[in-house]
Amino acid sequence: MPKLEPKLAKWIRWLDVIGAEVQALVIAKDIFWSVQKLIRANPKIQKPSAFYQYMGDTYVAYAVMGIRRHAKPQKGSITLAQLLGEIAQEPAKISRAYYRGLYTDPEKTHFADTHFDRFCEKPGDSHVSKIQVEQDLNALRTSAKSCQDFGDKRIAHRDNRKLQTWPTFKEANKAIETLQELCLKYRLILLADYQSTLLPTYQYDWQQIFDHPWRTV
Predict the structure, then answer these.
(1) Which terminal residue of the chain has fewer beta carbons within 10 Å of its beta carbon, N or C?
(2) Per-residue pLDDT tens for 68-81?
């Protein structure tokens, strides 16, 4: 890792925090929908239950607030929107020279320029594209809009203002997927670290608990 300019070092620290929080959302989404799949596959448990209502309400509140947090640029807070906003203001901090320095394997250094060009306005540019970063920020805001509005007016507090739209499960899923895509993209930009997903490989069968009756009395 080359010697880091202070702003770059801060962005990388932030990305670690953001990545951990977005990963938690990705895991929650996977677990929630995996349980829904189990329910759909078993007619014996397809009946009205306050537990199902609680589970859905809990997932929605957790997902919406996590999405809302990272879609809002807020000075002094570590959010994905704030990170992208700062990068858009100073794109030259992520330079081609810096990115080349991340390729320490002599057999792979020739890939650095080709990979970096994907984040530039045109091949050979000296730093990442301000326009591309702004587009990513807009994509984040757009995907999170209904969730953010709902979080502001119904979960964080009860607002007298009318909701413009009610978020759907599909919209929440899409917002989490957008958060994940952007986290992965900026890990690639800031660290030359490629990952295809933030969903970890479970080291045990977490669904095994459903193989046994829960109520024994």
Answers:
(1) C
(2) 999 988 888 999 99
